[in-house]
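Researcher: Checking consistency across runs. Here is FAD-dependent oxidoreductase again:
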Amino acid sequence: MTSGSDLIVIGGGLIGSALAWGAQRRRARVILLDEGDIAYRASRGNFGLVWLQGKGLGHPDYMHWSIRAGQLWPEFSAVLQEETGIDIGWRGGGGLHFCLSEDEMESRRFLIARSREQGAAIRIDLLDRESLREIAPGIGSDVCGASISDLDGEVSPLLTLRALQSGFRHHGGRMAVNFTAEQISHDRHRGFVVKDAKGNEFTGRHLAIAAGLGTTRLASQLGLELGLWPERGQIVVTDRVAPFLHHPSNVIRQTREGTVLLGSSHEDAGFSTGTDMETVAQLCRAGTRIFPALRAARLVRAWGALRIMSADGLPIYDEAPETPGAFVVTCHSGVTLASLHGLELGPALVEGHLGPAPCSMRSKRFAVHTS
């Protein structure tokens, strides 16, 4: 048994690591429990977008929450690099959503209008084909234009994860690797107790569950029913090519190293992280339709990863009703929201509350009401 901490964070992915890093920066005693390589690590297969345009449309609280995260990303990236010396590959300046028909252009006009109606503090412009060619000269003949947002950007998910965990340790945080949480209980003398199958345990005053697809099982022990489910996304990557795309897009991203990512799919495949040739071919066709020169690139790798989805696709931020001080944090936008989770939510959790997290994102919204 270990001595008690101020906060136990279950889950060493982007969400849990951001929360732990933010809490530890407050000079708290934080323990981060990481399942290790057996976890369905979303950051291993993430496209690496900080994406705001259209996010939360129809759900103003989520829209403003996400935009706040986008506004914090320059500061977040700078702080991580200053603390750890790790350049996480953050590049802002806007992201492109390509349109391949006039109907798609009209849909973007509608999205821009609705975003303004809902008070989104984000600038989204619609570029016609000629304007788009000034910043993306290699577009194919099917491309009609694109929308571009000032807050969208890109980052390396794996380097971000590495920087968060390095910064966490730099501030004195403790990390237990290859620890699979199986049982959670609360003791009025020791606080929250988290055990694995071998009986190893950690205790803490507060608890945050950010265990990805394992969150449902753990949260149910505290009276929270979440019903999370996996959605698979496949991505393909080419070999290095000369720089041609200086803005991330909804389907194509050229990394700083020169490789090109094409993605991603949305599939109901259970817990499979596999790939299939049909989907890979679809992604390649979509990418080469936008940039025909990619037909000459060599495909070197493809992978699948699982997103964590709630019933309505929105994040869940909640506190256990019968054991105050135990929290759940889950979402499928772990990259975009990492800045907010690290700089604002983590410090709030170690103090025993959800801070600025919108009340509309509690799990009670899924409750079945009967007359």
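Researcher: Does this match what you'd expect to see?
Model: One thing to look at in this run: The first helix runs from residue 14 to 24.
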